[in-house]
Amino acid sequence: MSEVYQTIRVRFEGAVCFLQLYRPDADNTINHEMINECHEVLELCRERYITIIVLEGLPEIFCLGGDLESMTASDEGGIPHESMPEQLYELWTLMATGPFITLAHVCGRVNAGGVGFVACCDIVISDIGAQFSLSELLFGLMPACVLPFLVRRTSFQKAHQLTLMTKPISAELAKQWGLVDECEQNSQRVLQQYLSRLKRMNKIAISRYKQYISALADNIQSAKPLALKANREVFSDQDNIENIRRYLQTGQFPWE
């Protein structure tokens, strides 16, 4: 069974949903439509007997974070839209706590909000050529909504280091840090091995377990107000907005 969407591709194979982020003309960046379509699919998975969601990107780019043009778009009052960060945070929360096993299959480059998509998943399988980065501080921003999910997977210090350095790390290093669970040349083979095992579990057992494990690690919900507050602060800074717009128009970084 398959569904047609604008920013994602979705197919169902038995109890498994394959959800591919698909904006090839925009480096697989995140916009409102992608968030809404992902929400719709996850709600379908919650209602149906779907036990596993496999999240994928493009062969060379998994996801490069938020669509900067969408993120700096203004309403009539000249203030950047504020609903996108909260909707994205709720999407990641559902992926982390919902009644299904979320498995990220990562190939290519992952940046900023793309790291959030990876970090919120229960299991992460990576191609050996994948790279992970948080570039926000280069533009006066911060990965405020990503960090609660990233810290759950890595140590506080590793998430802190990835944020400050802003440069990519390899899939092998990401595995050492805990962001990636399996890193192989043939990641598709590893994915199939995982699926053959995970398919044996029933939805009731998965749902009960996810509720329990989420209650043990409740930092996602408790961190939400602080994360959204920090996000609003950096995106209400007009210097940051102008620097981003200049980068989109000229390719120049703020310090150039």
Note the beta-strand portion: 15-25%
Order of helices and strands: EEEHEEHHEEHEEHHEHEHHHH
Structural class of the secondary elements? alpha/beta
Number of strands: 11
CATH architecture verdict: Alpha-Beta Complex
- The mean pLDDT is 92
Read across the widest sheet, the strand sequence of neighbours is 1-2-3-4-6-8-11
Biggest sheet character: 7 strands, mixed
Contiguous helical run count: 11
* CATH homology superfamily name: 2-enoyl-CoA Hydratase, Chain A, domain 1
Shape type: globular
End-to-end CA span: 50 Å
Could you list the spans in which at least 5 consecutive residues all have pLDDT below 50? 75-80
In CATH, what is the class? Alpha Beta
Helix content: 40-55%
Query: Number of domains in the coordinates?
Result: 1
Radius of gyration (CA) equals: 18 Å
Oligomer: single chain
CATH topology group: 2-enoyl-CoA Hydratase, Chain A, domain 1
SSE inventory with pairings:
Elements lengths: L1 E3 L3 E6 L2 E6 L10 H16 L4 E5 L4 E3 L4 H4 L11 H15 L3 E6 L2 E3 L1 H7 L3 E5 L3 E3 L13 H7 L2 H10 L3 E2 H7 L4 E3 L2 H12 L4 H14 L2 H17 L2 H13 L6
Features:
256 residues, 11 strands, single chain, alpha/beta, seven-stranded mixed β-sheet
Structural summary, described in words:
The protein is an alpha/beta fold and 256 residues long. The protein has a single domain, classed as 2-enoyl-CoA Hydratase, Chain A, domain 1. Helices cover 48% and strands 18% of the residues. The chain has a seven-stranded mixed β-sheet, with helices on both faces. A four-stranded mixed β-sheet has the order 5-7-9-10. The longest helix has 17 residues. It is globular and about 55 Å long. It starts with a strand and ends in a 6-residue tail after the last helix. About 2% of the residues have low confidence.
